[in-house]
Structures are given as C-alpha cells and as structure tokens.
Amino acid sequence: MLVVIVPAYNEAERIGRVLRDLFEHDCKNVLVVDDGSSDATARVAKEAGAAVIRHALNRGQGAALETGNEWARQQGAEVVVHFDGDGQHEASDIAPAIAVLREHNLDAVLGSRFLGVRSRVPFLKRVLILPVSRLVNYIFTGVLLSDAHNGFRVLGSRSLHSICIRQDGMAHNSEIVAELKARGFRFAEVPVRVTYHEFGQGIEGGIKIIWNLILSYL
After folding, report:
1. How many other CB atoms are found less than 10 A from the CB of residue 33?
2. What is the chain's pLDDT, residue by residue, as a tens digit (218 residues)?
3. Which terminus, N or C, of the chain has the lesser number of Cβ atoms within 10 Å?
C-alpha cells in the first residue's frame, strides 16, 4: 500500500491542483496534514478527495510529516511519499522514484533538484543558500548529498517503521538523513523537478534550521 503524505499550511489556493495531479497519476491514498492553517486548506483538500488530519496549531513541516507517517503506519502502508503542498513538486516523479526504491532494494529515495536539468533554481538559492545547507547537512549527518533540503522523498517499510521525526520544523530533512545513516539503511538520490512559485526558504530560515540542528545535538 502506497500513501502520499502532503503537509500543508495555508495552501488553499494551490492544494486542489496538487491533489488533482496526484490522483491523475494513480495515487489513490493521499493524506493532507493541515498544519494549523487559517485558510480553507482542509476544506479544499477534503472536497478534492484526500483524507485530512488537522493540527490545531501550526507546529511545522516535520511535525506534519510525522503525523502523516503515524497515520500511514496505522493504515498498513508499505511505502510513503512525502510531497509538498505548495505545487513545487510533480506527481510524475513518484512512480520513477518508487521504481528505483524497489529495483535497488533501497530503504529510502531522496529527491534532488540538482540531478538533471529540469529544475530552475533561483540564483541566490543556487549559489549561496543551498551550498551552505549541503555543507551543514554533511557536518551534522556525515552524508554529502547533492540536495540537502528537498521535500520530496520516498520511505520504504523499514525506514517508515523505524524513523520517528522529532524535529518539528525544517531541520527534519537532516534528521531523516542522519537516521538513515545511523541505522545502516540503503538510500539514494533521484532527480526530481522543482518549480518555484516564490522565493521560498531564505537566509533567515536557513539560520533557524542550523540552530534547531545544534539544539537537537545538545
């Protein structure tokens, strides 16, 4: 059983298109975790046909993903896909990523916007923010990835049932990678397309991620 988990915060304008894209690509079990939105995200998601869990307060993407993972475990999921709710990802990337997971007997597949040429990354993110994030991720995890903070990932059964996300915010990306390595799980990166509708994670957000990582290790 495959479950696609879509964390969403105030994404009422985009979540409907995201879900239609997923359903059109044969993703039958889709869960939207509405992370305390103040808009109609939950209603739009329900009307589109997704299962919905709503946090009363905005806790962060990591917390939303762990809520989704726990729901998927209870449903008996064998594979979960983490898929952003802001329309940056493409559902057409899911099937190839799952194929890599199964063909190579991996425990996880991580999306990368730097493998291949399909993603157009804004200049400042490409030359400053993302290289720094790769270095920080390596310092804290010992794993050098081409894309350290991509919201697209696939978890197989072993990693889904072994990894508990404790970082409520965006630092969960590095936490997951560290857990994969610590448990000896097999994983690989695959190319995915990321389409930017706005600038997104800035320098301030990057500093917050680093600070959360330091606190977690202390």
Report:
1. 29
2. 999 999 999 999 999 999 999 999 999 999 999 999 999 999 999 999 999 999 999 999 999 999 999 999 999 999 999 999 999 999 999 999 999 999 999 999 999 988 865 656 555 555 555 666 666 666 667 777 888 778 999 999 999 999 999 988 878 888 999 999 999 999 999 999 888 765 444 455 555 555 555 555 54
3. C
In terms of C-beta density within 10 A (0-12 exposed, 13-18 middle, 19 or more buried), how is residue 114 classed? middle
Instruction: Answer yes or no: are the C-beta atoms of 161 and 66 closer than 8 Å.
Output: no
Query: Do 130 and 147 form a contact (C-beta atoms < 8 A)?
Result: yes
3-state secondary structure 74-101: HHCCCEEEECCCCCCCCHHHHHHHHHHH
CB 177 within 8 A of CB 143: yes
